[in-house]
Amino acid sequence: MSAKVLSAGLSGLAAELVEAESDIGSGDIGSFIIVGLPDASISEAKERVRSALRNSGLSLPKLKITINLAPADLRKQGPNYDLPIALSILLASGQLPSGCLRQVMCLGELSLDGQTRPVSGVLPAACLAKELGLRAIIVPAGNAAEAQIVDGLTVWPATDLKQIIGQLRGLSQPLTIKRLDNNSIEPAVVVDFSHVCGQETAKRALEIAAAGNHNLLMIGPPGSGKTMLAKAVPGILTGLAADEAIEVAKIYSIAGYLKGANQPPSIRPFRSPHHSASAASIIGGGSWPSPGEISLAHRGVLFLDELPEFSRAVLEGLRQPLEDGFATINRTIGQLIFPAQFLLIAAMNPCPCGFFGDNRQVCRCSSRQIANYRRKLSGPLLDRLDLQLTIQRVRPADFSYGVKLESSAEVRRRVESARQQQKQRLAGTKFLTNGDLTPLAIKQFCLIDRYGQALLRQAVDQLNLSARGYFRVLRLARTIADLANEPTIAKIHLAESLQYRFANY
Ligand SMILES: Nc1ncnc2c1ncn2[C@@H]1O[C@H](COP(=O)(O)OP(=O)(O)OP(=O)(O)O)[C@@H](O)[C@H]1O
Ligand SMILES: [Mg+2]
What we know:
four-stranded mixed β-sheet, Rossmann fold, alpha/beta, Ribosomal Protein S5, domain 2, binds adenosine-5'-triphosphate
């Protein structure tokens, strides 16, 4: 007898259909073979399934059992298939009524005593089940909330093998899970714009960065508020659209961070990995490639504090995703692609001691130390940072208590309006924001008035603007004009844009 149970495997962000097919026949009595899983996972899955069945009062048929997980060329993670393997054996050996798993997807890890354990990647699998119009998805109870994010899909939570078998035999009703409201992976907005005193230029630059999705670098002495400013960025970003939220939630699901959440996020992600983090954890990778911090920051903010302290592998590894909007991970089993469209906010001190150019404290670094420190950031990386600005320490006079400062919500309204204009202008193109515009697109979408053109010609001559620098100034000027609700770029927008060209450290 043979039987098939539907399951799912992951290829980057997308889930693909996997069939757990079991065949029970005569031959080597008691042999149990699994094909289609990587070596180590096979023996582990075999032992887990064998023990889980035994400890649930069920038995492996004393015949030759062959399991095939198809297609063979798809990346498969061992534990996800324990449950479909166990159920397909029970189906093939007549221990489950035939047809009870027709049009049902199933995934989950089993512990030796037959309990289910949560796995990663349930949300993309549930999206696939819905797309295929399947009847239901069986997932470990710990993943049930996550599967319920998909509207209109029936979720059967499984606490253990015995319980789900009882349900499939028609002896019990599907478990219902209590739906907790608003349990999401929402990052908390920790700093409101109104908490930041002074720093008007920096706040304006952050507003431009948020409005046009322009990467930004802040350079300033210790305590000048760089980290605080970066933490204020999520509060001024527009909310996530429904399709973006599902995309973000899928990445968190694959990384195994979604357990317990039953809503997609509504606030954009904010990730701030430490500078000692490895390239694999930031760009993505590992023995079972998992999305890195740059993908966890997809559609949100990646904050890299103390930028030159990150390893060379990380800094160089950022260049390609910053250009293409996705991370490519090469493996022996093939190439994996995870989306990685994020707003990069970076911060650094001007020198190793931090006080170079400070108006209050003397810098103790030699010119060689300073040069070495700055050399860690390569030209091609700096080229991808549209806004570069120097932050000075806030003056005591700026701590004028009693003065009401503009809140994040007020700034966000301007950002939303600027985004709306970009959306209209760029409709039908592959671009979402001004920050994404390529030189060719800049020529098409960044129209400049007569006086603006004259200023730009002057800047090219006098400031020795490179071709890259030229396009960067234009991209930024387009966002500045959008914030002012102006259809054409004028001299005033270009003049402001030119200010953010270099951090004059
Ligand atoms: N403009 C400001 N308004 C209000 N508080 C501020 C401001 N600037 C700094 N602070 C206060 O100073 C503290 C230190 O700032 P923060 O950690 O952001 O500095 P930093 O530039 O990141 O320093 P470092 O280089 O040491 O990391 C903040 O937690 C905040 O309380
Ligand atoms: Mg800091």
